[in-house]
UniProtKB/TrEMBL annotation:
<keyword id="KW-0444">Lipid biosynthesis</keyword>
<feature type="binding site">
    <location>
        <begin position="261"/>
        <end position="262"/>
    </location>
    <ligand>
        <name>substrate</name>
    </ligand>
</feature>
<feature type="binding site">
    <location>
        <position position="21"/>
    </location>
    <ligand>
        <name>NADPH</name>
    </ligand>
</feature>
<dbReference type="Pfam" id="PF07479">
    <property type="entry name" value="NAD_Gly3P_dh_C"/>
</dbReference>
<dbReference type="GO" id="GO:0051287">
    <property type="term" value="F:NAD binding"/>
</dbReference>
<feature type="domain" description="Glycerol-3-phosphate dehydrogenase NAD-dependent C-terminal">
    <location>
        <begin position="186"/>
        <end position="326"/>
    </location>
</feature>
<dbReference type="Pfam" id="PF01210">
    <property type="entry name" value="NAD_Gly3P_dh_N"/>
</dbReference>
<feature type="binding site">
    <location>
        <position position="261"/>
    </location>
    <ligand>
        <name>NAD(+)</name>
    </ligand>
</feature>
<feature type="binding site">
    <location>
        <position position="142"/>
    </location>
    <ligand>
        <name>sn-glycerol 3-phosphate</name>
    </ligand>
</feature>
<feature type="binding site">
    <location>
        <position position="114"/>
    </location>
    <ligand>
        <name>NADPH</name>
    </ligand>
</feature>
<dbReference type="InterPro" id="IPR006168">
    <property type="entry name" value="G3P_DH_NAD-dep"/>
</dbReference>
<dbReference type="GO" id="GO:0005975">
    <property type="term" value="P:carbohydrate metabolic process"/>
</dbReference>
<keyword id="KW-0594">Phospholipid biosynthesis</keyword>
<dbReference type="GO" id="GO:0046168">
    <property type="term" value="P:glycerol-3-phosphate catabolic process"/>
</dbReference>
<dbReference type="InterPro" id="IPR013328">
    <property type="entry name" value="6PGD_dom2"/>
</dbReference>
<feature type="domain" description="Glycerol-3-phosphate dehydrogenase NAD-dependent N-terminal">
    <location>
        <begin position="12"/>
        <end position="164"/>
    </location>
</feature>
<feature type="binding site">
    <location>
        <position position="114"/>
    </location>
    <ligand>
        <name>sn-glycerol 3-phosphate</name>
    </ligand>
</feature>
Length: 340
């Protein structure tokens, strides 16, 4: 296999996964002047992007640049110098396995899913290490609703890559006047924060849907931030990462807008719907629903207490109701206000 030589930026970019975020990121690449190819599983998505320059299934009503080309074939990504992997977290393993025969040794893969794998409790970089051991990992995370990014509204995100030179190349590849990636070397912190904020957004949605008020909302965000910090640091991350865009930034965004799929699942649950009703008819993914049990399981292994995430997992599993959960959270032993 051919070894890649890194330049100042990458020109040929492959994006796997044409959901809302993969499509928006392909648009970012095109806007940055890169040669981008977007791989979709659904033939009607490929057709719609290549003919109407729209992804009407996952990113309705947004015009895409004609330079965003779609394909159903992973083999069309063979010449790409950089791959953005954007499937839902629970499908990252199968997606990377399917990609394996087509990519060059050592090709950098930017992991863009926010979640923890159920059954293994693996972060996405661990899934990558197991499926494509020769690939170089980076993580893209941060406050970035796909529709806003695709429209060209300003957004700033974290690009975490332990290889400083490679990280610099990736941010220069993706940066545009409206998309500003900041480089970090703390991949674990970015991944941990991205996975937990989705679970915490469900909690904020439940609170909002049940009419628990602004005080409860602020308390959930703040104590949720403490949970991210404990969890990330226990995994070996730095606390300053959690204070950045991929942590505090994304937590604030996702917990504050019904644009968030995770928050809207919470809103429905808080409003009295069952999980089945809340998810009915949705084509889009709410990662917190899938990741909550894995997050809680991994935290137990790490010896980290995550009362809010545990409460969300129990509500999602139908084990407890909202009222009893709120009472249980409020009657925990009183303590010093420390995050760690
Ligand atoms: N939508 C957003 O604003 C953002 C999403 N993300 C993250 O990006 C990841 C992907 O989310 P979205 O693009 O929003 O997805 P989406 O909810 O828009 O679409 C679902 C995606 O899942 C794919 N899919 C369904 N079954 C699959 C399977 N068996 N194997 C592989 N793929 C399958 C579909 O093809 C589609 O690409 C998630 O981890 C999400 O947290 C991150 C930042 C922003
Ligand atoms: O991760 C996101 C924004 O940064 C998108 O959040 P939702 O998946 O909850 O819509």
């Amino acid at each position: 296999m051919k070894k890649l030589k890194h330049a100042d930026h990458f020109d040929k970019i492959g994006v796997i996964g044409a959901g809302a975020w993969g499509t928006a990121l392909a648009q970012v690449c095109a806007r940055a002047g890169r040669d981008v190819i977007l791989q979709a599983r659904e033939l009607d998505v490929v057709e719609s992007i290549n003919t109407a320059h729209r992804n009407e299934i996952y990113l309705k009503g947004i015009d895409l640049l004609p330079q965003v080309r779609a394909t159903a074939n992973l083999s069309d990504l063979a010449e790409c110098e950089l791959i953005l992997a954007v499937p839902p977290a629970q499908h990252m393993r199968s997606t990377l396995k399917a990609l394996a025969p087509f990519i060059s040794d050592g090709v950098p893969i930017v992991l863009c899913a926010k979640g923890v794998e159920r059954g293994t409790d693996a972060l996405m970089n661990e899934v990558l290490a197991e499926t494509l051991p020769n690939a170089t990992a980076a993580v893209l995370s941060g406050p970035s609703f796909a529709a806003e990014v695709a429209r060209g509204l300003p957004a700033a995100v974290t690009l975490a890559c332990p290889d400083v030179d490679l990280g610099a190349q990736i941010i220069h590849t993706l940066a545009t006047p409206t998309f500003r990636p900041y480089h970090s070397d703390d991949m674990i912190g970015a991944e941990a924060a991205g996975a937990l904020k989705n679970v915490l957004a469900i909690a904020c949605g439940i609170s909002e849907g049940r009419g628990l008020g602004r005080n409860a909302h602020a308390a959930l965000i703040t104590r949720g931030f403490a949970e991210i910090l404990r969890f990330a640091v226990a995994l070996g991350a730095r606390s300053e990462t959690v204070a950045g865009l991929c942590g505090l930034g994304d937590l604030v965004l996702t917990c504050s807008s019904p644009q968030s799929r995770n928050m809207s699942v919470g809103l429905a649950l808080g409003g009295g719907q069952t999980l089945e009703q809340a998810l009915a008819g949705k084509v889009s993914v709410a990662e917190g629903v899938e990741s909550a049990p894995a997050v809680v399981h991994l935290a137990k292994k790490l010896g980290v207490e995550l009362p809010i995430c545990e409460a969300v997992a129990a509500i999602l599993a139908g084990e407890v109701n909202v009222e009893d959960t709120v009472s249980a959270l409020m009657s925990r032993p009183l303590k010093f206000e420390t995050a760690l």
